[in-house]
Specification:
Layout: H1 3-12, H2 18-26, H3 30-37, H4 42-54, H5 58-71, H6 74-86, H7 90-97, H8 107-119, H9 123-130, H10 137-147, H11 153-170, H12 183-193, H13 197-209, H14 216-228, H15 232-240, H16 244-257, H17 261-274, H18 281-290, H19 294-301, H20 313-322, H21 326-334, H22 338-343, H23 345-358, H24 362-370, H25 379-389, H26 393-402, H27 408-417, H28 421-426, H29 431-437
Helix pairs in contact: 2-4, 2-27, 3-4, 4-5, 4-6, 5-6, 6-7, 6-8, 8-9, 8-10, 10-12, 11-12, 12-13, 12-14, 13-14, 14-16, 15-16, 16-17, 17-18, 18-19, 20-21, 21-23, 23-24, 23-25, 24-25, 25-26, 26-27
């Protein structure tokens, strides 16, 4: 184990990816997580420590992380401090990671330390640590997130106010790259959680009406604020006005929620007829789907199925799958012409195999897969899934193991799902071998 290997695991989710770790956690295989951690699997070490803390085994959790801490892996140092805090040793936890003057210049260090301070109940110090970095949009978001429910809304609003004023003036001054472009959205969010909903609505409404905002996210934040608080008049104004491209879906959903689905459909169809970019078809498809009008939902999406941009084919297919309409989904897929299939070869074929499997047509899926080029990306995994679903687990394992493009974790996951977790972990290559074989090494 070395820092380079750990950085690869973190950067590329390499070795033991979240899907595999989550599977081990779900099945209660804490000891196997510990075993994998001893081989340098950072994701397993982190999960093992978390699960051990759930049963108050704090010292053992620290022992799992200790080799990573000794190597100088910073995420492990912070995770260990969190464990010490959970064990009730507050000052010791903070002292383990308290940043020096140089550390206080790092946004990431300050974010991590502020989070630990809040957990320790030292919210004011956490705000102090974050304050020098609030010209960055993501750090503003951290401030708002960490102070929620901490009775510090007035202090947070004081810090947000000058940032929000800068964001309001940015467009007029053509400062398009302003970092804290989310300050207005966050200001409204804090006003709302402080119980000052009218003020939050008034502030964003005035900013939007005057064009005093920089990014589309501000429109989205306003629409969500209105929808959460049942502000139909303002939502109608936003949904039917110049910002309908953002507001209309929220207005239509609010109408539906109030039992006015017919009016929502009428409004959506009116805007679809006048919109050349097909921006409002998905809200209509969702509305029709929730009403069980699946055939109409398909027709609403059909004009986009061959588009390069704003294509709703995959979304409609998933809608049909959720409704149990597998044959309809296959019919739509099979309507694609040769040019489309050529441009989306792997996506088309693997999805067709998946749909046949969802429909329970396993033999047909396997026969179809057998006709495809063996080097098609995703073919082995898709075929193995069909074999697994039809109870032919050993054949699925043989196929995955024989395929050079299959990641080792896919074999391990299949084994874990079928009660062979020890075999799965014992069969995993070393981290160095996994990295050498990775496409993202």
């Amino acid at each position: 184990m070395n820092i380079d290997d750990l950085e690869w695991q973190s950067r590329a989710l390499g070795g033991y990816p979240p899907v595999l770790v989550d599977l081990l956690v779900e099945q209660g295989h804490v000891e196997l997580l510990v075993r994998a951690a001893s081989r340098g699997a950072w994701s397993c070490a982190r999960a093992a420590a978390r699960e051990l803390c759930r049963t108050s085994e704090f010292e053992r959790a620290l022992g799992v992380l200790e080799p990573f801490v000794e190597l100088g892996w910073e995420p492990a140092r912070w995770a260990a401090a969190d464990i010490v805090l959970q064990a009730g040793r507050v000052q010791q936890a903070l002292d383990r990671v308290r940043p020096d003057d140089e550390g206080l210049t790092s946004e990431h260090v300050c974010r991590d330390f502020a989070e630990l301070l809040v957990k320790a109940g030292q919210v004011d110090e956490a705000i102090t640590v974050l304050t020098p970095h609030l010209d960055r949009s993501w750090m503003l978001s951290v401030l708002v997130e960490l102070t929620e429910g901490q009775n510090r809304d007035e202090r947070v609003l004081e810090l947000l106010a000058p940032k929000a004023e800068r964001a309001r003036s940015a467009r007029g001054e053509e400062r398009w790259n302003l970092e804290a472009s989310n300050a207005q959205d966050l200001q409204a969010q804090v006003l709302e959680r402080a119980g000052r909903v009218d003020e939050a609505v008034q502030v964003l409404r005035a900013d939007i009406a005057a064009g005093h905002f920089l990014v589309q996210n501000t429109l989205t934040a306003y629409a969500e604020l209105l929808q959460r608080n049942g502000r139909m008049d303002e939502l109608r104004e936003l949904g039917l006005g110049e910002h309908a491209h953002v507001g209309l879906p929220y207005y239509a959903k609010a109408l539906e929620n109030q039992g006015q689905a017919d009016e929502a459909e009428t409004v959506l169809r009116h805007f679809i007829a006048a919109d050349e970019w097909d921006r409002f078809r998905w809200p209509l498809i969702g509305l029709l789907g929730r009403q069980g009008r699946i055939a109409e939902a398909i027709e609403a999406g059909r004009p986009t199925f061959d588009h390069h941009d704003a294509c709703l084919l995959e979304s409609v297919i998933h809608l049909l799958v959720d409704a149990g309409r597998f044959d309809d989904a296959l019919t739509i897929l099979d309507e694609r012409d040769a040019e489309y299939i050529d441009e989306h070869t792997s996506w088309f074929h693997t999805n067709r195999i998946w749909l046949l499997g969802e429909a329970g047509r396993y033999e047909e899926a396997l026969a179809y897969a057998a006709e495809l080029p063996t080097d098609l990306y995703g073919l082995a995994s898709s075929t193995a899934w069909i074999l697994e679903q039809s109870g032919r687990v050993d054949e699925a394992l043989g196929l995955l193991r024989a395929d050079a493009g299959t990641d080792a974790w896919e074999v391990a996951a299949l084994l874990i799902r079928h009660g062979r977790a020890d075999e799965a972990i014992d069969g995993m290559p070393s981290i160095a071998e996994l990295r050498a074989a990775s496409r993202w090494g």
